Amino acid sequence: MTQPLRRAHRRIIIVLALVLPAAFVAGIAARRPPAPANPGIHWSALERP
Amino acid sequence: MSVQYQAVGWNRQKRIYDFVLAGSVLTYLALFVGVGSIIHPNATAETLLIRGFGTAALLLLHVILCIGPLCRLDRRFLPLLYNRRHLGVTMFMLGLAHGTFGIVQFHAFGNLNPLVSLFVSNPRYGSLADFPFQSLGFVALLILFLMASTSHDFWLHNLSAPTWKRLHMLVYVAYALLITHVTLGVLQSETSPALVIILGAGLATVLSLHLAAAFPEKRLDEARSAAGADGFVEVCAVDQIPENRAVVVSLSGERVAVFRYDGNVSAISNVCRHQNGPLGEGRIIDGCVTCPWHGYQYLPGTGASPPPFTEKVPTYRTQVIDGKVLIHPCAHAPGTPIEPARIDQAERIQA
After folding, report:
1. Pick from B24, B179, B219, B351: CA 20 to 30 A from residue B62's CA?
2. DSSP E strands: which ranges in chain B?
3. How far off is chain A from B182, nearest CA to CA, in Å?
């Protein structure tokens, strides 16, 4: 009765264990260095009046 | 157990559980916003709330996903499982607050419908670094809504436990979407290694706990025993079954819970009618097999719940010979009375 569910659960976990770490590492590797902040500009100066 | 539907069948344990849950969530949000406003004085209250709700929901999702395997590995975690659905609904509400604030903040002030804007304002679906990660969170939120809205015994009963459990396995799809949502979203702009380490540790914990819990289950499912001429299968020694507890065996692809109590041995299906909980991991309380998940009870000799309850599970014929327990693998209809095997029967046969 519950054996098919357990089998499905095992397969889902195995797929996640393969795919998710790879997606996580790829996402982190794709990061770009942030643009350096311009110390002469404060965000409030960009607000519209 | 209840004979009729109630919004929530409150009891003392549920009240304590929910009180601790609500207190923890509120404390977390207050700390997140309070500390966040000190560390990032330029951040707006909306931004802090969006991040506070989002991180609280993600943290709670990790806790929820760890509870199941932890209970498999150690019974002391079972009290956490008792009210796990309230954790799930709370997590959805936090995610909904995060999503609603986010859509209002980033998509509600343009010419497009906010929900359309969510999917089309950033069309760079082919780029990892610029991926429109908000769409992933939105789909995950839809799945979590489906789960939260069916987190009630009404739906469990009307959909049947196996269908309900299949539906709720979608949590793994939602989890994968949310990990990707965070990785391609906030982790692209927030470059602190601490955030990467925290999310990576959470992911590793969830996956390793599930793998550690799944493989012993696989071994039990694949265990095979040879049947004798009369069809009975030797499953264990009587001494291996603690008093008022059970040993779980796999027979013909079905799990059977073999209970020992008051000098008797009875075998019933291991699958609780309520939520398919593992009856063999429960114990006999007041003469009834008690499911470790939510306390549903069955008489070991009949597989039927005591009146006025109507749940029934299949029963199996048992024998005790030379200190060994034998079970016939053919299940009897749920609720069929089966005479328990007497443990002293072994002594009679030897004599």
Report:
1. B219
2. 233-237, 246-251, 254-261, 264-269, 283-285, 288-290, 297-298, 315-316, 318-321, 324-327, 341-342
3. 9
Please state the pTM of the whole predicted model.
0.81
Per-residue pLDDT band at B351 (split at 50, 70, 90)? very low
Chain B residues whose CB is inside 8 A of the A27 CB are: 128, 180, 183-184, 187-188
Q: Does this complex have an ipTM over 0.85?
A: no
Please answer whether residues B270 and B289 qualify as being in contact, where contact means their C-beta atoms are separated by less than 8 angstroms. Answer: no
Q: Phi-psi category of B160—alpha, beta or left, where left has phi over 0 and alpha has psi -120 to 50?
A: left
At B190-229, the pLDDT tens digits run 888 999 999 999 999 999 999 999 888 777 777 766 667 6
Q: Does A35 touch chain B (CB under 8 A)?
A: no
How many other C-beta atoms are found inside a 10 Å radius of the C-beta of residue B326?
A: 24
Terminal Cα distance for chain B, rounded: 45
Q: How many CB atoms lie within 10 A of CB B171?
A: 20
Residue A24 and residue B121 in contact, taking contact as beta carbons nearer than 8 Å:
no
B172/A28 touch (CB, cutoff 8 Å), yes or no: no
Residue B86 sits at the chain A interface (C-beta within 8 Å) = no
| Closest C-alpha among B87, B28, B214 to residue A9 | B214
